[in-house]
Write a structure and sequence with these properties.
Radius of gyration: 20 Å
Number of helices: 15
CATH superfamily of the largest domain: Queuine tRNA-ribosyltransferase-like
Structural class: alpha/beta
Strand content: 15-25%
Shape: globular
CATH class of the largest domain: Alpha Beta
Strand order of the largest sheet: 4-14-13-12-11-10-6-5
Oligomer: single chain
CATH architecture of the largest domain: Alpha-Beta Barrel
CATH topology of the largest domain: TIM Barrel
Largest sheet: 8 strands, parallel
Length: 374
């Protein structure tokens, strides 16, 4: 059976729906993956995350390597058993966290030398070690180690780091095969900064290595949205049409919709959970800051169109009270809503693609946002 099966295509864009087959179930695409960085989607139980409609979550190689350690997780039966999550898990390689969290990071041909953000201890993360950690975690989809380019990045430096990514990806695939895939899928990552020629060259080289899926890395790092969308479009056109395309770390509902329009199938981002803890809630008419005084006596739910537990049971007034009082229940109820908003948003996108009305869906989405009646 193929790893990825296309179900339907939009006649007015590059969008498509499909089925991604993993050893722990079938995932409908386009899909949003809630982020469970340290084997936990913050403030929610795995059962609650599943109840919101999530079929796959993301966990972080870097964080689990440092604490509690991949060896311990392996001895306790793997990540699924450790966190009581029976559905699919994608693990990233840890590369982005090495570059963004470490007090010291030095890139060598062998790997990334860094100091732990927890205790300052020095490590070197190699393509081989990243795959060994992910094998110990026993994740269903594993990512190769790549080099993360800053923004802006001079052309020569972007070229050097992109070429190093290709070398690391060759080593990553060799390590994955040597360790024994055991039903897991390995995704390659396209880099290249904001340079079209480097993006195309990277995509060509990664496709020649051969992976079950392909990710677009190095975006949403401070560049204008117009530039990001241009890089997405260039990259998706250079990738095989019979493989899933994963846009890493993106993003807002607007970014997701525009990326789907350009042929992306998979997404992850901390925005729905992080914003929930900060009191920013997503609605069908735009974002809502629950701390605002105008909600003090507002009896309405966050979003009348939402079917989540929070919207069915609690008013804006109560949610504002919880947030202003610093009550932990605020985190939970806000996160339930934001995650359900994202997952329901993906359900609506898939339905629109199947019915070949994504253009209409897109137009109405922006009309509601402009109205901003929340």
């Amino acid at each position: 059976m193929a790893v990825f099966e296309i179900e339907s295509k939009s006649s007015e864009s590059w969008a498509r729906t499909g089925f991604l087959y993993t050893r722990r179930g079938v995932i409908e695409t386009p899909v949003f993956m809630p982020v469970g960085t340290q084997a936990s989607v913050k403030s929610l139980s795995p059962e609650e995350v599943a109840g919101l409609g999530a079929r796959i979550i993301l966990a972080n190689t870097y964080h689990l390597f440092l604490r509690p350690g991949h060896g311990l997780i392996a001895r306790l039966g793997g990540l699924h058993r450790f966190m009581n999550w029976p559905r699919s898990i994608l693990t990233d390689s840890g590369g982005y966290q090495v570059f963004s969290l470490s007090q010291f990071c030095r890139i060598t041909p062998d790997g990334a030398c860094f100091k732990s953000h927890l205790d300052g201890q020095e490590y070197i993360l190699t393509p081989e070690l990243s795959l060994e950690i992910q094998a110990a975690l026993d994740s269903d989809i594993r990512m190769v180690l790549d080099t993360c380019l800053p923004y802006p990045c001079p052309y020569d430096e972007a070229k050097r780091l992109t070429e190093l990514t290709t070398e690391w990806e060759v080593r990553s695939k060799e390590a994955w095969e040597r360790l024994g895939p055991q039903g897991s899928l390995l995704f390659g990552i396209v880099q290249g900064g904001m340079y079209p020629d480097l993006r195309k060259k990277s995509a060509q080289e990664i496709v020649e290595i051969g992976f079950e899926g392909y990710a677009i890395g190095g975006l949403s790092v401070g560049e204008p949205q117009e530039t990001m969308l241009k890089m997405i479009e260039i990259t998706t056109k250079a990738l095989p049409k019979d493989r899933p395309v994963y846009l890493m770390g993106v993003g807002t509902p607007e970014d997701i919709l525009e990326a789907v329009w350009r042929g992306v199938d998979m997404f992850d981002c901390v925005l729905p959970t992080r914003n929930a803890r900060r009191g920013t809630l997503f609605t069908s008419h735009g974002k809502l800051a629950i701390k605002q005084a105008r909600f003090k006596e507002d009896e309405r739910p966050i979003d009348p169109e939402c079917d989540c537990y929070t919207c069915r049971n609690y008013s804006r007034a109560y949610l504002r009270h919880l947030f202003m009082a610093g009550e932990l229940l605020s985190y939970r109820l806000n996160t339930i809503h934001n995650l359900r908003f994202y997952l329901r948003f993906m359900e609506e996108i898939r339905r629109a693609i199947r019915e070949d009305r994504l253009g209409e869906f897109r137009r109405k989405f922006y009309e509601k946002k402009e109205e901003n009646t929340c």
